[in-house]
Structure formats: C-alpha cells, structure tokens
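Ticket #4471: complex job returned nothing on first submit. Input attached below:
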Amino acid sequence: MTTTLDTGTGTPTGTATAASARGLTRTYGDGDSTVHALRGVDLDLPAGRFTAIMGPSGSGKSTLMHCLAGLDAATSGTVTVAGRDLAGLDDTALTLFRREHIGFVFQAFNLLPMLTAGQNILLPLELAGRAVDRDRYDQVVAVLGLADRLGHLPSQLSGGQQQRVAIARALVTQPDIVFADEPTGNLDSEASAEVLGHLRRSVRELGMTVVMVTHELDAAAYADDVVVIHDGAVTAHLTDPGQDQLVAALRGRVA
Amino acid sequence: MRTVLVASMRHHTRRYVAASVAVAIGVAFIVVVGMLTGATRSGLTADVGAPVRGADHVVSTSTTEEVDRLVEAAADSGVPALTLGYAMEPVTRDGVQLAATVDVAEASLDPRLQWQQLEDGRFPAAAGEALADVNRAKSNDVRLGDVVRVGTGDAAVDVEVVGMVDSPAAMGASLYVPWHDLRRLEDTLWVHAVAWGGSAAEARTAAPDATVEPAADWVAARQAEISRGVDVIAIMALLFVAIALFVGVLVITNTFSILFAQRMRDFALLRCVGVTRRQLRRAIRLEALALGLVAAGVGVVLGALAGAGLVALVRRWFTDMGPAAVDPVWTGSAFAVGTLVTLGAAWLPTRTATRVLPLAALRPDTGVDVRSAAGRWRLGLAALCLSGGTALLALAVAGSSLPAMLAGGVVSFVGVLLVGPVLVPWLIRLADRLPASGPVRRLATGNAVRNPRRTATTAASLLVGVTLTTAILTGLASSRTAIDRDMDESYPLDASITAVDAPLEASLVGRVAGTAGVTDARGLDGTVATVGRVDLPLLGVGGDTGVVRGPADLAPADGIVRLPYAVVEELPTRLGDRVWEDAEITVVVAGRERTLRVETGSGWGRAGLVSPATLAALDPEPRPMAVWARAGDGTDAEDLSGDLAALAGAAGAELGGGFANRTWVDLQVDILTGAVVGLMAVAIVIALVGIANTLGLSVLERARENALLRAMGLTRRQLRRAMAVEGLLLSSVATVLGTAVGLVFAWVGVQVMVAGVVDGAGFTVPVWQLAVVAAVAGLAGLAACVVPARRAARVTPAAGLALD
Ligand SMILES: Nc1ncnc2c1ncn2[C@@H]1O[C@H](COP(=O)(O)OP(=O)(O)O)[C@@H](O)[C@H]1O
Ligand SMILES: [Mg+2]
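Support reply: We reran it on our side without changes. The output follows.
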C-alpha cells in the first residue's frame, strides 16, 4: 500500500498510465473575477483501475475531469490520454479522439430523450460510423442487466436504470478510459450501490479504466484508488486506501 | 411581480429578437405602403386644378359635336374656353420618329387660360406653334425652335415648339398645340371637358346635354377620383401586408410557445411560491405588450426611414411623386396593429403556459423535452376544412365564381395548416427515406420531427409565402399565355412597311433586315388594285413567311382576298354591304377583274392579301409592295419603330405592326409579376426570420443534449451540418408542400378567372420561375440556420454540460 501525500504523482509501479496531467491549470474569467478552478495539478491515473476523484463541492473535480477528458481546454499545462498529448489537438481532432478513446457517464441528463435505451447505447458507434460489435454489445448489456429494457425511452426508465444505460454506452466502444462525473449524485443509496457495483465490475471483469468524480465517501469506497482534491490542487493520491486512511486524508485537508 | 417581470424580460431579451424583427418588419411594411401611396396621392392631386384656374365653370361632355359647339360659341362671344383632353399621336422630326405615342393637349391662345408654368420661350400666339413639356422634351431631345410633325397621313400637323413648360402629372400632357391644330387629330382625340370662362347659362345654351359645374366642384371630384385610384393600390398592397402580418403571427405565436415551454419550470416555481394564475397571466401578457410596443416602435421608425428613402428614390425618376410625409393616423394605426398582433399572437401560448401546475416545479428536471401532438379535435377540424374547402373550390370551378374560390382557398388552406402537425413530420420522415442517410441526417430528422406542432408552425410560416407566390406566378404565367395568344391574333406582325401606291425599292428588305432588333424580314410582292373606288396594295402571301406570329400564317387560299376592317369601312355602302352579306368583292388590276371571296381581319397594315396564284392571275408581273418584319424579344419598341419609321418615311410607305403594343402588354405583366414577387418577399423574409428563430431557440433548449452529443464524439462540423439539414428539411418540406398547394390554387384560379374571359385558356406552369422560388426558399432555410448552427457549435461540451 503506497501513500503519497501532497503533490503526489506516484503511480503504482509496473502499471501503465491511462491518463496524466502535468502543471494543469484552468482559470475562469479574468481581472478581479478570476476563478482558479485548477492550480497546477500533476496527476497520473493508472490503467485497469477504478479511481475516485474526491473533494468538497466547488473544489474543481468536474473541471479536472473535463480537462482530462478533452471536453474543455486547459489554461496551461499538459494532459496526456492513452499516450496522446491533448494540447496539440484542435476541436475536431479532439472530438475524434474522444470517440475512439474515451467514454462518459454524467450525473444527469445522460441520455437523449428521443432515443430508446438501445439506441442511446449505440449512439457513439453510430456517430463514429463504426460497425457494432454484437458480442461486445451483448456482453455489456448482460453485465449491466439491461437486456429487457433496450426498447424503452429514457423517460420510461428509473434513475438507476438510466445510469446503467449510460454506463453501457460508455463501455460499448471499448474506450481506453471511462470518466464518470457524480454518476450517483441523483440516486438513492440502493440504486447508487447497484451503479457503483456495475462500474467496479466493468473494471474487474471487462478490464476497463474508470475515473469517477464524487463527493460521497460511500461512493469512493468502491474505488481502488482515491485522488483527493481541494481548492484546485491535488492533496493526496491514495492507492487501495482503507476507510480510516481515506477519512484521515479528507479530514486532514478539510480542517 | 414587477421585479420578476423586469428580470425575466432582461434575461430573455435575446430570445425575443426574432419575434420583434417579425413584428417590426410587418409594421414597417405598413408605414412604407402608407408613405408611398401618400406621396403618390399628394403628387397626383396637387395641381389637378391648374388647367381650370382661369375658368369659372367646367363643362363635362364627351361628344365631339358639343365640344365643337362650345368652342365656337366661346370664340363668338369672346368667352375664354379650354378643352381638357388629349390626342395620342406619333411625333416625328425630319422624318425621324421621336416617340410612337405622345399625349397632345390644347394650348390656349388666351393668356387667361395659359395655365402651364413657362420655363423657357413663350406661349403660342397662333396655330402652328406648340408648347412642350420640359421633362418629356428632355428625354426625346426636343428643343426650343424645333419643328415637329404630330400624327400621320393627311391629318398630320407640323408645329414649331415655341415654349417649354412644366406641367403636373394628373392633368399635363407632353405637347400642347392650339385647338385649330389639335382638332385635326380627331382620330385619337378625346376631350372629356371644357374649362369655361363664361356663365353657366351660356354653356348650357351651347351644349344642352353637358354637365356644367363650378370649377371648384369639378376639381374636388377629380381629386377624389384620383384618390380612389390610389386607394385601390393601397388596398391591394395592404392585402400583402395582411399576408405578411399573418406570417408574423405564426412566427410570434411560435416564439412564445417555445419560450414558455422553456420557462415552464420558472412559471411552476412562481406558482409554488404563491403567485396566482391570474398574476402570472398578467405578467406574461405585460411582457408581450412590452415586446409589441417596442417592436412596433422600431417598425415605425424603420418604416419611416425606408419610406422616406424609397420616396426620394422614386422621385428621381418619377417627378410627379409628392414629397414623403408621415401620416399620423396611418402610422398610428400601423403601430396599434403591430402591438395588437403581438398581444393576440401571445394569447393562446399564454393560456397554455399559465395552466402549469405548481407541482411541475418539484418534478425532477429531465431536460426540456417538449413534445406536442396533434389533438383529435384539431385533426377533425382539419378534415372538415379540407373537404369543405375542396367542395367550395370545385363549386367555384363549376360556376366560375370568384367568391366561392376565395372562400374555398382560405378554408382549404386553413385545413392544410391544421393538418400540418401530422403532415409536416410525415413529409420530413419521407425525406429521410432518401438514400445516403447517416447519423447526421438521422439526428436532424429526429430533431425536426420531435415537436410536430412547433415544426408545423415554423413550416407553415414559409408555406404561406411559397404557396401564394407559386399560385400568383402560375396564374400570371397562364394569363400571359392567354394574352400572348390574343396578341398573336390581333397583332400577327411585329412591323409592316406597306407601299401606298407606288412599288418599293427591292433593297428595302435588306435595310429592314439590317435594322437593330429585327430578326427576320420578308419582302412581299404585289400590285395596286382598285376595290370599289378605293385603291390599295394587293399582296401575294404564300405559305410560310417566317415572320408571322401565332399559328395563323395570314396566307389566304386561292380565290380569297383578306381585307382589313378599316378598308371595308371605306367602301361605298353598296359594296360594303355586299362584303358583309355575301362576303364577295370585285377586284380590278389594270383592267383585269376578278370576283373574290372576302375574309376580313386586321393586323397587316392597309393592304389586301391574296394567294400568289391569285395575284399572278391579276398581275403577271408583281412588284415589291411590302416588307414584313419580326422583332427579337427584348428589343426596345420605341427605337425599333423610330428606325423603321425613318425607312418607311423615306420610301413613302406606311409603317404598321403590333410590336409596341405587345411589348407594352408584356411590360405590364412583368411589372405586375415583379410587384407581386416583391410584395410577397416581405412575407417570405418574415418566415425565414421565423425559421432562424425556431432553430435558434431550439439550440438553447438542446444545449445539454448537444453537449452530450459532442462529448460522445459528434464533431463541430457534424453538429453544424445536423442543424443545416434540419433547417433545410423544414424549408424544403414547406417549399414542396407550398408549391403543390400553390399549383392547385393556381389551376383553380385559372379555371375561374381566366377561362371565363379567354376560352380554352391553358394552364401554364412557369417552371423556371417556380424553380427559382423553390431554390430561394430552400436555400434561405439553409441560410436561416447559419447563425444558430454557429452558436450551437461554438459551445464547448464542458460549458454545455455545466448549464443549469
Ligand atoms: N464556467 C465557469 N465559469 C466560471 N467559474 C466556473 C465555471 N465552471 C466552474 N467554475 C468554478 O470553478 C470552480 C470548480 O468548479 P467545479 O469543477 O465544477 O467543482 P466541483 O465539480 O468540484 O464541484 C468553482 O469555484 C466554480 O465556481
Ligand atoms: Mg461537479
């Protein structure tokens, strides 16, 4: 068990890096109203693991995720995903890169309301004009237990089911890394447990890399590693932390 | 509630821009129409009284005898009298035609009635002297001291221009000659009144049947008449204003529906915190009122500016236009109409919006996913309108009834609009079946049909313009075909140069053919024949001359002579009766006599037409007696007739032909077509603002969805293309539907309005014109989504996702 505090960049040795950031800053606005959402973040996210990014509300978790996922441009610093430096990519190249290498699950409004669950799952493939790998699709649908829900519209699904559809959609393209922003933020504890269980299974059984933003301790407990962020800076990167260790890391910073 | 109102208006200002533009354009349209007609009216009525200023009474009569008696009586008793009216005659100078038709009026020799404003020279003092209007003279290059010939043949008079005058439009003429000269142009002279300086009793004695009234009354009546004429034009223009406003209503209603749907949660929240339904309704209506007031105000200002500019522009060419003025009543009404239209358009959406339950605020926000469907009552009503309208249209065709046609048109069009929420999405899905569909197309189709009623209303706004433009263009094209056929019959020849009594030089054909604008010229051989006591050229016309327009080639069969009506009228009564009753006449050429069957007609000048064989039997050695010419399309009629008149004059021959009339009629139809298209364009522009508006508001509504798609791998280009395809689908469906409905309406219109007047009138589809309309409407739909698409694509996925 390795624990790196403060500006930890440590990576469990021997593991490949799925995504990494160096000196990543992101500011909003200018002049007096400048908000420093990220202040020089250095971070390496190992492949094949379930990492949680934790921190209080407004600490910059979503911003970090957006920058790592190529949804938003960094003000300075570099982001490398799947061995590719995102800084050099223009919007189109970035979009194509996302199509190929990144999957997403958001807190809410994950699905297009006019498409059925099945169509939503296949949407990224359709956008990319890629052929559907039926085996993969069936496998993902089976893992997430959606087989009998594929013909339903999002409005006919429960919140937990909607999130499972979103996870299926993120997994079906076999991305190098899946980002999830508070995927359980709108769910009750039972549905949350189910969704988190599915995310963990996708790492264990399907070999995916999942990075999840959350502010809930319970959710973080499902993750292998935990990155703690506070006021735009990474304050800890814990590998397989125990509950106590995690609480200590969080509390130490909050205090 | 005021804070809420002000805050929400400020927050939503940008979303109201398109609706305001629609209202402003409509209001500006009304103001411009008012200013143009106002300026025309003031220009035309300003100097109506000028010619009768020196007279106490005006004697209205239209019989030549009474006019003559009045003029004589005036001369005898020394009463000043001036005839009001004009002759329409060609004017030549040194054998060169200056103009084919010039309006010639009387120039008084009595200083009391010399009402024109003298710019140069002096007023005529005797017969043979003339005044020329300074503007008209300028365009024909007539100068002081020129001697011009007015009229043709025996009646022609030569006059010297001794003065240049400025005269108003309504009452003025281009040339003024003393009565002695004017009287000789009796063929085309039409005098409708006499300005009378004597007493009413004297006038009644001279012309017992005429109406005598004080000059002031007569002027007032003329002004009212002119005003009515201008009013008719104003009313026609207002019809197009009404159409534009109707389209505006569709756009505004749609805007409010969309905006209110987007703000449903806000409304519910307000209701939750204790706002009553009534308060909410009032707040929304106040919002609409404010929008209406602002937009109508902007429209008035824009309209006044555009109107002033247009009037100034028109005045540069058309000097009789009055100055631009803003009529307060008219402009006030335009403002009121704009405001009321906005309020009215907001009425229904407001009712729907305020029906929101407070509970809606507590439901989880699943993003804006407004779906609307066609209600059953709506479809029922649509079916009723469609079948009723069709029945009325059928009735109109059967009975050639205009009211039934208009009623049927309106009712069935309302039916089409009502069925829109079903029809339009269906058509869009149909368009999606076209090959080469990809994710972008599917996305666009999905978005376009997601909200049938919104889509239908958006399409409807364009549909109105396209339908009416198609119907009117097709109707005009069909009328033009009918008119063309009529013209071919009345004017089979564009130009004819016919010898009077001596043969023509053989080289004349070549010179006519070489004249600019002449595409083909044929010389015809003939002889001089005597019919009764009348000498006239007899032309041998063989089969295809190549220059005759229309299906009839003017060639008579052997043993037949075709005579102009005018010649038959000249014959002694006994012979004339024989022609009318037995259709026979005896033709004599150098002692050889033949009795021929007569067919009468007109359009080839003063000559008889026979077959070459008949001609050979009468005169074995025919000589060149006429040249017939065909003019190319687009040739300037005045130039052509001037050039040919010079050739004809030098040859001592007569110039005839219908090219000038043909081009004049063509020009009228062209002007009408242009005016209609121009006026309809306003409605189409408003419709395009509406499309841009719907797409723009949908972009706001779909911000998160678009962000999600972008995160998922939709490129900027794909997003822009999806929006472009959505706009294109909307506009093409509206265009296709509008063209189809418009063609049906045009067919009915032609059956009802043209077929009754011209029998066997065909239905002509102006394919190219319609193609241009369709292309403009379709592409404009594409243009309408440029701004919304760019705005949608600019948003980064992260920013889109962060939206509340
Ligand atoms: N578009 C934006 N404009 C201005 N400030 C922003 C924007 N997005 C986020 N912020 C600010 O950046 C900081 C980090 O935000 P965020 O990454 O959303 O935090 P978290 O997801 O941890 O709650 C916050 O202070 C937030 O107010
Ligand atoms: Mg967040």
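The CA atoms of residues 397 and 752 of chain B lie 5 Å apart. Closing as resolved unless it happens again.
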